[in-house]
Design brief:
The chain has 67 residues and is mainly alpha-helical. It has 3 helices and no strands. The longest helix has 22 residues, at 38-59. It is elongated and about 40 Å long.
Length: 67
């Protein structure tokens, strides 16, 4: 996850709320754009980053850059 995405999460809405919001946005945008569209890919990558953060938090490794 990028530092920007991590800081955005820490300063705004709860993690799972953010994941759900991005998931709904992704579903909506793919109704009229291709999966290869730059906007779709970028949104998907943002969603992936938050999902990875949630998985790390669940496993107890919430620090940025943990692998």
């Amino acid at each position: 996850m990028t530092a920007l995405a991590y800081n955005s999460y820490r300063n705004e809405e709860p993690l799972y709320t953010m994941i759900e919001r991005l998931r709904h946005e992704l579903l909506k945008i793919t109704e009229h754009k291709s999966f290869c569209d730059r906007d779709v890919v970028e949104l998907s990558q943002r969603l992936d980053a938050y999902i990875v953060l949630a998985q790390r938090q669940k496993s107890g490794r919430s620090e940025v850059g943990a692998r």
